[in-house]
Every structure is written in C-alpha cells, then in structure tokens.
Amino acid sequence: MDDKALIYLDNAATSYPKPAGCMLRALARYIELGASPSRGGYDLAREAETAVSDVRHALRCFFGADEHYPVCFGSNATDALNTLIQGLTEPGDHLVSTCLEHNSVLRPLHHLRAQGRIEFDLAEFDASGFVNPDDIAAMIRPHTRMVVINHASNVLGTVQPVSAIGEICRNKGIPLILDVAQSAGAIPVEMKNWNVSGMAFTCHKSLLSPSGIGGLIIHPDLPIRPIRFGGTGIDSANLFHTQTFPYRLEAGTLNFLGILALNESLSYLQELETQGYRQMEMALTEKLRDGLSEIYGIDLYAAQSLENHLPLITCNVRGYVAADVGAILDGDFNIAVRTGLHCAPLVHKHISTAPNGAIRFSLGIFNTGASIDAAISAMSIIARNA
C-alpha cells in the first residue's frame, strides 16, 4: 500500500478519525468515575448516574425533544429500531415503510411478517431519491400501527420530507418512527416539531462517538413494551421488568464510557456549528459531485441536486464492478470508500445497481479540498482504464 496519508471517505459507515481530545477527555472522566450508574447508593455511583442524566438532557436538546421525553440508551440504531418495532407491534398490525430503508428496518419487518405477526407496505421513491408523503398517506389502513422511515438514505444521501409525513401521521393518530442513523449530527433534527413519536439513533457516524452506543427517544405516551428483561438497578424486588422510564428499555449495565464520549462529541458538534461546518461539508460534496459528473463513464445516482442531501455521493464506473473500484482506490490511491449494497438492497434494486451495488463516497468534518481533488483524480484514472 502507498505510504501517503489515508483519504477516508466512508463516514456514512463510521466517522473517522474521531476528535481525539473528546475521546481522551471521556476516557479520563470514565477512569475518574468508573462506577456503574444506578448500581449503588454511594457518592461515586450517584455521580455516574448524574453524568448519564446530563447526557440524556443534552440529547433532548440536540434532537428537539421536550424535557419529559424518555431517552433510552442501547448499542446502536439497529438495536433501537428493533426495540421500537417489536415493542410496539401486536399480532395483526399493519406497518408502512419505504424502499429506501436500511436492513435495520427491513429485516425486522420481514421476520415479523414471516412469523405471521404483521403485514406491511413499502412506499417507492422517485428518480431523485425522495418519497412522496401522499404515497405514505395512501398506504395507511385502519389497522396501521406505525409508519417507520429513515430521515436520510445511506445509499443516496437524500433527506426525506419528515415534517410532511409527521403531519400525516399526527392527523391519522398513528406514531411516526424515525431512523436518524445517517442524519444525526450531520443535519438538524426536530423531533417534536416534526411530530415524531419515536426516534432511533446511533453515535458512531456523524455524532463522532465510538461504536457500541446509541439508543432511542420517545414521546412519553408511546405505549412501548420492553423486548429484553434483566437488571436495571431499580425495583430489584420485582421479578418482572420495571415499567419506569428510561429503565423500561434498558436491561443490563449501560455503556458508560460510550455515553461519556457522546457527551463530549455533542459539545464538540455544537462548537463546530458556529463555524459553519455543515456548509463546508456540502461545498466539498458539490465539488466532488461536479468533478465526478465531468468524467466520462461515471454514473451518479440521485445527485442532480444537493438540496435536502447529506454529504454523500454514490456512483459507478461503467465496465467495472463496484467492489473492484473500491479495491483499486484502496490499493493504488489509499482512498477508503464503501462499495456493495450498503445493507439497503431495495434501493439498489430500484436504481438497477443490484446485485453488485455501487461506490459510495461519504464525507466528514475532517475532509479537505485536497482529499476531494485526489478522489476525483483517482476516479478519472480508473474510468480512463475501463
């Protein structure tokens, strides 16, 4: 491999590098506290619980939720989505989702349908990568239990009209469940204003935290059941799992180090916001889009407009399998991208890139104009040799 510095363009999978100062401060805080939150009446355990409560509050503010919305920690967005989908559905329920979804939604839906528990319909998306809210409305039945959608596609980068869909759900009296795995930290999220009843997040992408920490935020009236049972640190005499939030959906010891790291990352992101980092990311994304669009033999997907779009570009090189382009970018140019189906097979089926998928460039806060120039140059060389 070339000894030049790695150009990392796979931030939609996980952000890299992490802000080192944040991670070191979180580790130092963890070493200082160390005790398990809610697992003792002594001062150190109480201080640990207070630190966790502070992060719950910070998340409510960050995602536009009211102070009384429970914040429940888990391991990632997939974990949270399983909790929401399985904890809200009853036999005979109908769900509405979309063909833009990640397998973290599609697989729970298909497994529950195979067990005879639910039925569901999936709304298509248009050539620009957007779902029409009217299509969602048309699929809602009298026994529809929820609408579950992603805020932004991990394949196309398109940001869906959540506010309009949330208004439809509010008028119909059904919950809207939102997957913000890709959008959290990259673009603003307004849970209450958009009438979102439940939201699943992960922290290792644009929230700049380590893997293994995520969770969900819910409206306090959402009648969700726990799907795992165990120790919570409270109500220990009860042999049935507590119904008290947030512990109702938190079985076992929390990832305290991950929560402390998230707290540092949230503060870091708020500082970056004053510097206009989102605008800088999108300016670099536009530079990449324009550069790739000028190369003969490269096909771009849903990138004609970057309005309502994440800093993400997906493409293919005619004459190449996507995985081979990724291997060349890695081996010859030290550029890291994601290739394949991106755990979203229906998107690729819809845009006719299945079964081999496509090449995804996803930018982060540490990318520069020079890294984008290098990516465009490398793709130009590859396309010329096709």
Task: Please name the defining characteristics of this protein.
single chain; 386 residues; alpha/beta; Aspartate Aminotransferase, domain 1; Aspartate Aminotransferase, domain 2; 7-stranded mixed β-sheet; 4-stranded antiparallel β-sheet; 15% strand
Name the structural class: alpha/beta
Question: H/E order of the elements?
Answer: EHHEHEHEHEHEEEHHEEHEEHEH
Distance between the termini: 22 Å
The strands making up the biggest β-sheet line up spatially as 2-8-7-6-5-3-4
CATH homology-level superfamily of the largest domain: Type I PLP-dependent aspartate aminotransferase-like (Major domain)
Number of domains: 2
Average pLDDT for all residues: 95
Number of strands: 13
Rg from C-alpha positions? 21 Å
* Individual helix count: 11
CATH class value of the largest domain: Alpha Beta
Please give the share of residues in helix.
25-40%
Which stretches are low in confidence, meaning pLDDT under 50 for 5 or more residues running? none
Strand residues, percent: 15-25%
Task: Find the CATH topology of the largest domain.
Answer: Aspartate Aminotransferase, domain 2
CATH architecture of the largest domain: 3-Layer(aba) Sandwich
Give the CA-based shape.
globular
- Report the sheet with the most strands, covering strand number, pairing sense and barrel closure: 7 strands, mixed
